[in-house]
Design a protein that fits this description.
The longest helix has 25 residues, at about 30-55. This protein is of the alpha+beta class. It is about 65% helix and about 15% strand. α1 (about 1-20) crosses α2, α1 packs across α5 (about 90-110) and α2 packs across α4 (about 65-80). It has one domain. About 20% of the residues are buried. The model has no long low-confidence stretch (mean pLDDT about 85).
Length: about 130
């Protein structure tokens, strides 16, 4: 549970960063920002895998680029569902999806399921070692 909350915080940071970088994405208040992050996390965990499965041939043909369109669609859908979270078109949605995916992907690499920071090192003699930082 702790890891999930940290990952939601990371997603929130990524959404805030996208709203600052991408023109056309706006958050008008704290409540709308929190609601957008919660709904985006829900859509990413429930709806996105289904969309990936249904569009697998398109993802394969486009070498994964279709996943960016799906993520952009979900971000735009959040803007429809949450008053105060504004995505003003296709390109801002795609740009926001790219920023959110990159930032949350890189930061989530360091968080374990238990919510601890992990550093993975490879030693030639003994193999892979994971060091936890509390």
């Amino acid at each position: 549970m702790n890891g999930f909350l940290i990952r939601c915080g990371i997603t929130g940071f990524a959404v805030l960063l996208a709203s600052q970088i991408i023109p056309g994405i706006e958050i008008t208040g704290i409540a709308s920002g929190i609601a957008a992050v919660v709904i985006l996390a829900f859509l990413n965990s429930i709806i996105r895998p289904v969309l990936y499965l249904l569009s697998a041939p398109f993802i394969f043909i486009t070498l994964g680029l279709f996943m960016v369109l799906i993520n952009g669609f979900l971000l735009y859908l959040v803007s429809i569902l949450v008053k105060g979270f504004i995505v003003s078109g296709f390109w801002p949605a795609v740009g926001g999806a790219i920023i959110i995916s990159l930032v949350s992907g890189v930061l989530n690499l360091w968080i374990s399921e238990q919510g601890r920071i992990e550093i993975v090192t490879h030693h030639p003699s003994s193999g892979r070692k994971i060091r936890h930082i509390n």
